[in-house]
Design brief:
The protein is 35% helix and 24% strand. The longest helix has 18 residues.
Length: 325
């Protein structure tokens, strides 16, 4: 909209008549931008949209910690665009995330965001619990996406939030990775959506257990894991940490994605069961449903793994007392 007008002005005589025409066109374009106000207020979590020297970003309301996120060229399926379209992002999952983290929040709370993308859950936790001084470690293997993640962390001024340009896996290696240009959230170690607009790159991965030991992380309270199909390998590489700290785990599990890696969500459920966890599907904003097995009829794609003893209170409050043994 603006590019054509700027080029027209630069290629004009730049006299008074051209300037007046340019001013009118600029003003008309600005008035069109004002239509974005229709996407704010009411049921929307957006409180403002800002243009600065680094780009365009949206600021969300207090329910989302007044978090800020930049829009990025081509990444049309990213969280900021989804918020504009749906007025929020992963509303049911986000509300449950805030409910459960509030139950276990304390000063020095430590969370791992594995597969952070541009940082929805990283920014959400860091902003909502800013006063508690939460520690967030965010992992994103794509250098392009990780750069955007760090840009958003800087925009929100979050000194205790750190982003690492690595993936977590069950080994230390350099692996092929398919970066989805138009939907970075769908990037993975296989071309999940079989799209043409993907860029094949090589990324570094390591084991969660090794990362925690190397960085001297004493205790982990919460793990969010969404790595587009390779979740099992993340947990295999972090079994020692899971056994040691018994954190609350929030993970995506899709049958169609895990099949691309030759396993099923039930392999994750069994792995977790051996560590003392049970699986709960996110059924609604304030409700979890005990899910001992994923079948063809299972519709949920996001789950919580809760330790039967350590997280008894959460299970009773959100998942039903009858599941606690």
């Amino acid at each position: 909209m603006f590019k054509e007008k700027i080029n027209s002005w630069n290629n004009s005589k730049r006299d008074k008549a051209c300037k007046m025409k340019y001013l009118h066109e600029l003003n008309d374009s600005m008035m069109q931008i004002s239509e974005l106000k229709q996407l704010m207020g009411g049921n929307s979590t957006i409180s403002s949209i800002t243009v600065d020297a680094r780009g365009i970003y949206e600021t969300l309301d207090e329910s989302r910690g007044n978090m800020k996120m930049y829009f990025e060229e081509n990444d049309c399926e990213a969280a900021p665009v989804e918020v504009m379209c749906s007025l929020d992002y992963e509303k049911t999952e986000t509300e449950m995330f805030l409910n459960i983290t509030s139950e276990i929040m304390h000063s020095g709370f430590t969370m791992l965001d594995i597969g952070a993308n541009i940082g929805w859950y990283t920014l959400l936790a860091s902003n909502v619990y800013r006063k508690e001084g939460v520690n967030i470690y965010s992992f994103e293997p794509s250098p392009i996406t990780c750069k955007r993640l760090k840009k958003n962390i800087e925009l929100n001024e979050l000194p205790q939030t750190r982003a690492f340009n690595i993936g977590l896996y069950n080994e230390k290696a350099s692996l092929e990775f398919y970066y989805d240009i138009e939907g970075s959230g769908g990037s993975s170690f296989v071309n999940l959506r079989e799209r043409e607009k993907v860029k094949k790159i090589v990324v570094d991965v390591e084991k969660l257990d090794d990362f925690v030991e190397k960085n001297g992380i004493q205790s982990i309270d919460f793990i969010k894991c969404d790595v587009e199909g390779s979740e099992l390998f993340v947990f295999e590489g972090g079994r020692k940490v899971l056994e040691r700290d018994q954190p609350v785990i929030f993970s995506e599990m899709l049958r169609k994605w895990s099949a691309k890696f030759n396993y099923t969500p039930n392999d994750i459920i069994q792995l977790m069961k051996g560590i003392g966890y049970e699986c709960y599907a996110i059924e609604a904003e304030n409700r979890l449903r005990y899910c001992p097995i994923v079948t063809e009829e299972t519709v949920e794609t996001n789950y919580y793994f809760l330790n039967l003893e350590k997280h008894r209170g959460i299970i009773q409050k959100y998942g039903g007392q009858h599941e606690v043994r």
